[in-house]
């Protein structure tokens, strides 16, 4: 597929959610930078970039009312995740070797499950993960820790899938990409923090209620599509293999890159409208904690959006992206019809 190198102007995107940020965001940001250097996350060059991306501020936006210690753990964990995604996969040789990557990620996953396991001693990513698990265990229940591990497993699995395409120079179709995009942005790994940071826990019956599962999946989808919109310029300028919703949509039809961008924006607008719709239509079925969780998913979406249009990660000061400075309350598409993506049509059957 021909690479899409066009410079696109990103219009204000639809966001019906209110912005917020933790009162200790400056301290959280400073400490996350210290943590990255303490554990040598990524190469010195990568680390120097990561600490300038306001990742602590990102966590503070996602958990504006969370326990400060847990918000700090999330900030450090996101730094760690970028160490895996950017360092091990996009910039490292394992990103083109799915078999070897699978083995390496399996070892890291074992460290998350059993941090005392005598393996990967001295490995920066493993030692950083041990620190994260130890600190998280002080705040999370055994069930929440298990969900964190499983969310990380789902993220790792998606990285292996991505490495397969990278190794062959291929791009997935829209349905496959929409499915994997719910996982390869690590939203499933960060999601347990929504409850842990706020001191509540969904019972498994509450978490696996069809409406709650759909709300979570829609949040992951919106976050992934938003990241693809905000990162389009940055990724188009880099030397590495990139999968992005705009590129995937552009590859499936004869239209222009700007037309593909409009379609991707319409996808996420329709999903956002449906997120609000099913939350409203099924409100009487949900418990107090489920309502709280739905609000926390909305904060996750909005926190990612505010970070996406303000972080140097996507603004790319050396070659500035044309990103919006605000959002709109008017969607480009709020149709009640399902998206033309089979993997997500179940959201419209509720």
UniProtKB/TrEMBL annotation:
Pfam families in the cross-refs: Terpene_syn_C_2
Keyword DNA repair set for record: no
Cofactor entry: Mg(2+)
Secretion signal, residue range per the UniProt entry: none
Keywords of the record: Lyase, Magnesium, Metal-binding
MF term (GO), any: metal ion binding
E.C. number(s) listed in UniProt: 4.2.3.-
Top EC class for this record: lyase
Coiled-coil zones: none
Highest taxon listed in the record's lineage: Bacteria
PANTHER family documented for this protein: BETA-PINACENE SYNTHASE-RELATED, TERPENE SYNTHASE
Protein name (record): Terpene synthase
